[in-house]
């Protein structure tokens, strides 16, 4: 429902469960040296104790070098767009329910280098913004998953 127009979006490359095992392994800091679109995927576990409301955000550099945009997908949901050389948003809060506080999470960056200089993301991290005791109780997740389709 909140997918963009890139081929990778239509093919489900941003969805949990997509098989990326044939993709080359790289790091954000390696970047790439030409115009184009690249998808970068990773997974990570969370184990937040019950009884706490933990606010978390994904963070890019305040202003990046180069002319590129990044579409941030968390567990299949488009959680924001980062514009490296323009800003102003570099911090993207992601609530419980999108983040699975008791399971594996998938983060995908669709990086669009708009010039021949390519793109290099110097930093990207998940931070804990605050921890509140009490919490909201159990919050379920209803994140989309990848499934094979005949056409898209």
Automatic annotation (TrEMBL):
Positions of the Beta-galactosidase jelly roll domain: 7-116
InterPro entries, A to Z: BetaGal_jelly_roll_dom (IPR025300), Galactose-bd-like_sf (IPR008979)
Alphabetical keyword list: Glycosidase, Hydrolase
Transmembrane segments: none
An example molecular function term from Gene Ontology annotations: beta-galactosidase activity
Origin: domain of life: Eukaryota
Protein name in the entry: Galactose-binding domain-like protein
